[in-house]
Amino acid sequence: MGTIYAVANQKGGVGKTTTAVNVAACNAEAGSRTLLVDLDPQCNATTALGLARDLRPNVYDCLSGELPLPDAARPTAVEALSIVPSTTELAGASVELPRLPGSETRLRDALGTVRADYRLTLLDCPPALGPLTVNALVAADRVIVPVQTEYFALEGLAGLLDTLALIQRELNPRLTVAGMILTMHDGRTRLAQDVEREVREHFPELVFDTVIPRNIRVGEAPSFGVPVTRHDPACSGSLAYAELAREVAARG
Ligand SMILES: Nc1ncnc2c1ncn2[C@@H]1O[C@H](COP(=O)(O)OP(=O)(O)OP(=O)(O)O)[C@@H](O)[C@H]1O
Ligand SMILES: [Mg+2]
């Protein structure tokens, strides 16, 4: 049976989509059938894999109950990697979802045969702890939390962990934290080293050993519509994401 990961942090621009896309691609390249689900109306994961925004069917159709996720999956340039694309119309979901019956379990209800079809499923969440992220956390087994190594890194993490605990208690007892991944790390700066030490001290068990470096190839890969491992397989970002994918798989 496959495992479902939510990639979540309410903070914007910390590397959620980059992590979801590249961990998904690295696992697929390692031979695991993998599904990436774009739950963000920005559609960044969708376009990062070279698909257009607003395709039908999309993740919104699945949340609406029209079809299960596997039926909305499309192939990508990476063999073994499929994606359920997003739509800008999902921006209305924060208003519409709470009005629907079972508003918090709609994604879980739409999983269908996902666990049988895919060894890994990654849910790329928007930068908010709103209804879409709640749906992801209710459907997921584990959460991967990208943390940008910058001055305010710890800010918001306590709130995120409180939300996870609440969802665990009320809606999804099996939910656990897979780990926090330090992203956009610039090892040459004192600040990045200090932030890394601080986050590891605060959450000794939770932080992945792998650190994702700030790497220009990682940032430019989405404009080519491919994961960084396709854009430049030998760059430091590709090596780090491959390592992270192994660590995620090893933690089970
Ligand atoms: N390791 C990296 N090196 C260089 N640039 C990076 C790296 N990781 C992410 N970026 C760039 O930083 C920006 C933010 O990353 P990303 O979109 O993954 O964050 P996000 O958390 O998904 O953002 P949002 O909250 O808006 O969904 C993007 O332009 C991305 O290409
Ligand atoms: Mg994103």
Can you characterise this structure?
By secondary structure, the protein is an alpha/beta fold. Helices cover 38% and strands 18% of the residues. It contains 12 helices and 8 strands. It has an 8-stranded mixed sheet, with helices on both faces. Helix 1 packs across helix 12. The longest helix has 15 residues, at 236-250. The mean pLDDT is 96. Adenosine-5'-triphosphate (ATP) is lined by residues 12-18, 40, 42, 44, 127, 183-184, 212, 214-215, 218-219, 222, 237.
Which spans of ≥5 residues are poorly predicted at pLDDT below 50?
none
Largest sheet: 8 strands, mixed
Radius of gyration, Cα only, in angstroms?
17 Å
List the secondary-structure elements in sequence, H or E.
Answer: EHEHHEEHHHEHEHEHEHHH
Strand order of the largest sheet: 3-4-2-5-1-6-7-8
Task: Find the count of extended strands (DSSP E, 2+ residues).
Answer: 8
Mean pLDDT, as a whole number? 96
What is the count of helical runs?
Answer: 12
Give the cofactors and ligands. Answer: adenosine-5'-triphosphate, magnesium ion
Q: What separation lies between the terminal Cα atoms?
A: 11 Å
**Fraction in helix:** 25-40%
Tell me the overall shape: globular
The helix-and-strand class reads: alpha/beta
The fraction of residues in strands falls at: 15-25%
